[in-house]
Batch of 3 targets.
Target 1
Amino acid sequence: MITAYIALGSNLDNPGLQLQRAVDDLDSVSGIEVTGVSKLYISKPVGPQDQPDYCNAAVEIQTNLEPLALLDATQTIENHHGRVRTIRWGARTLDLDMILYGDQVINSERLTVPHYQMHVRNFVVLPLFDINPELTLPSGRLLTQLKDELGNDGIDVMAEQYPWL
Ligand code: ROI
């Protein structure tokens, strides 16, 4: 079993509910067990500003799926939530980003782990910190240090305890 972390984001079609359903969807995949859920956050869009605010969260999972099989599973769930890939950095019903997969570093055509922008996104780092404040990245960096650097600009807690809604 590998411990992995997945970041969740949505800013369309009842974002909080999209994320809550996505947690259940992940847990119901054979080979995935959700073992930790962050608080639910609301955050200002990073990138194009002409889109709604986001809901963000993260989950910890135990999985026996290989990285690309896990990616397939998350993309299937995104598609079931009506995800349509249009413009880069545009609004979306559901985004599931594999942030960490054990302590593996992966650079393949389909997958980059750790997520290449996690260290500049407080909407990823704060939820991870809720679940595991002791987390160390494969690079040796401490999550707590990243969190202190990034601060709380543009992000607020919407709900503390899962189920959030
Ligand atoms: N901005 C916020 N606040 N939250 C996200 O999940 C998010 N996801 C994205 C982009 C468009 C970069 N901006 C975001 O993909």
Target 2
Amino acid sequence: MRFLLSLVLGFLLLNCNAQNNISETKTQTETVLNATPKLVVGIVVDQMRYDYLTRFYSKYGNGGFKRLINDGYNCKNNHYNYVPTYTGPGHASIFTGTSPKNHGIIANYWYDKFNKEDVYCAGDSSVVPVGSASKSERMSPYRMKTTTFADENRLFTQMKGKTIGISIKDRGAILPAGHSANAAYWFRGRDEGNFITSSYYMDNLPKWVQDFNVSNAAESYLREWNTLYDINTYTESGSDLNTFEGGFKGKEQAIFPYDLATLKDKNRGFDIIKATPFGNSIVTDFAIQAIIAEELGLDSITDVLTVSFSSPDYVGHNFGVNSKEVEDTYIRLDKDLDRLFKVLDEKVGVGQYTLFLTADHGAVDVPSYLQSAKIPSGYFDNDAFKVQLDAFLFEEFRASDLVEKISNDQIFLNKNRLKQLNLNLENVQYVIVNEVINYKNIDKVYSSQTMQNGAFHSGIETLLQNGYHQKRSGDIIMVKDPAVISYSKTGSTHGSGSNFDTHVPLLFYGNGIKKGSTLTKTKITDIAPTISALLGISFPNGSTGNVLDFVID
Ligand code: ZN
Ligand code: ZN
């Protein structure tokens, strides 16, 4: 009896221990499995080079960029791993965790070789704009072939976790939010000055968006743009008056101050706001309204908010990397970020949200400025190039229409014509590669065969291959010399595989994120798998990046 009792007791104890062990392991496993932020905020700053963090550091306050740098995790050596470094592909790659090779957004605009037409990355003729009288704002994410982490969060939460995408640019709102988003809103300038969407998401704007639009928010930003601080303290940029800047129509020189109310009529109405720091401010105002009205991050089910600040890109294109206008834009963006973070602290709670900030590409210093500093750079004339190539092909094959299209530094050949003339595609490609490599300012030329069959592990060839989509890309892929652009002689642009275009900030902050920094090279495609791993959700279906486990707490 006593033996039996001790046996039963022993069994009970054992059982109890086992249960303790199970519950112990369970809590341990739960803390390791995933973080549970109420809200993930993905911020993209359009055209932000990495060195804008360091160059303007002394001008930033403690609540904006510096808060993310000092209290979050700073990946200092973060790069794009494909070309071309444009806005559409950039936003798609950040949120899908893969490159154009898989998500299919090979550029902003590309040549559809099957339908023989130019297409836009967010264009969709099957939908209509909502909230705009315009006939052109027909937008959806349907050309993007893979899912974003926001899509995976929607699936994981039985569609209970919301997704809202916001930007000045349609593609900056639509591609990050993904296919299953509740809404994507972008800014319609011209004579409207409103945030709008498309019938892909809804049939009518919600009340809070209508209220925002009738509040005359856009009108209030038609004010004077002067430097926030004394212009003489802006020692991190070139002189205000120089020959490398575009400026606004209706004002002779590209110098401060700019009176937007008087310049508006000559610069496409409300579109002028986009090209000033006030574009960032109105996006911040709108994002704050979205957080409040959509109750983002209020319950325990993770929501996703994506905010893309497009205005720095417009300012950079107009005034260039080294301008006072760019410096002022970042000083003011820092203040808008501070304002946004304070609302997140208040409405969602300190430590309750996870945030990252990155950019969709960098930018080149204005080549004419670089030339003045003896740095190799220049301008490439696409039209002259086509004339030269067509003349060569006529000499070689007695046909003047072998090139169907030149787009995004790729040549699309006329396959029907090749067939008619009994010309072998690979042979024609080989001839073109060996011809074009001789042209001025052309650095490298490859055929689609090389992209399909090559096994590259580093360098520009890897970037080209990651940007090459078999069904959407061209037959010949060209690379121009470093800092050689097809662009006006004023202002900056982007698109190359050079470091000034690939090197962008990557800052993580908040729930589940360590404090720290790294100089280890990270890739833009690592962001989405890292956020997915943090949340414990399925990775975006085409994701090819790595989880940055060192940023996760
Ligand atoms: Zn961009
Ligand atoms: Zn741009």
Target 3
Amino acid sequence: MTSRIKEDIEAIGKIGKDPRGGNSRPALSPEDIEARLYLIERMREAGLEVYVDDAANIIGVRKGRLKEPYVSTGSHVDTVMNGGIFDGVLGVVGGLETMRQLNEDRVETKFPMVLVVFTDEEGNSFMPFVGSKYFAGEISNELSDLKGKYELISFKDALERFLRRVEGKVKKIGRFPYALRNHVELHVEQGPILYQRKVQIGVVTGVVGVQRAWVEFTGRQAHAGSTPMDMRSDPMISAAKTIEKVREIAIQMDMVGTVGFVEVSPNVINVIPGKVRIGVDLRSLSKEDMKKAISSVVSYALESSSPEGVKVDVTEFFEEPVLCSPRVVEEVKRSSEEAGFSYMELPSRAVHDSQVMAKVTDVGMIFVPSRDGVSHAPEEWTEWEDCDRGQETLKRTLLSLQS
Ligand code: GLV
Ligand code: MN
Ligand code: MN
């Protein structure tokens, strides 16, 4: 067993422990910065040249005989609130361990390799995929408009706070200037398939897209006792009906749909709320279905709000579903087989930085089992042997993608 993987995951898992359970390390929070400092030290110890770009991505370079293109791996270390210790972290630590083993085996590669720790994959701080979207060139100036959701801080100030802590340890760059050959991400499955079927490695064929909408219902704040029922403009009623509709539409359209965020103002028992904001999250492998579903949700929100005299405002976020590269898929299969691990193909039903990276390079993902399929929860667990098998598959895949 690779005790270094366990040691690193446990060490990072101690950072940002939430008294309510699990880990809460929103991107660039003081806790996330502590986890980043830990990793930067380990990356430097592994002889990587460490860069930080304008999106706060941490980029560790292992030189090859050629200057570029790079064989790339990486994931994220920010967590959802009350999340687990493996989501994202395994991919980063697995990449780091791979670099260490290559050093120990004195492997000199033709193409250089890079380990990227992407910023705000979860989007709990600023926006989902801030780091990968910037790395892939999809956003630039947008960074200066980003504002913290849990902490009232601008992205620029959060970046500076991080940079102050790493001065002298990293090189600051604008954007990573080199081409990639491919990007491979190791991750826990976060669903039940591998665990239930007792399969060791998941060869990911594609990643679902995500369609989100922040729907804000504005009514009239008033007294819960003295306002007659027929003289109310209550946004909670329209929000509640819409939440129920999300589930109905998701089931009808064979996708998943969740409302995991509700904000009520002023959130007081004897006050009819003035505003209710909900976060709708729809996932599918079909972009068309997601577009249809969100438009049905929004139409329903408008319809059910108008008799209440409630106003509706919608802000959308969308990320495309992608297919993994057939070449990478083949190499992951071959690597699992050569290592003697059982494997199966499956799509990812969680979203990942790799789907953003697919816009600039060939991507693939390697999954390992999640106990009972649980993730985004304090109970998230993956056996250490499975972490090791994932890392071994990652190493073999990255090496095979050298040729
Ligand atoms: C990220 O983990 C997501 O699937 O939301
Ligand atoms: Mn996650
Ligand atoms: Mn993740």
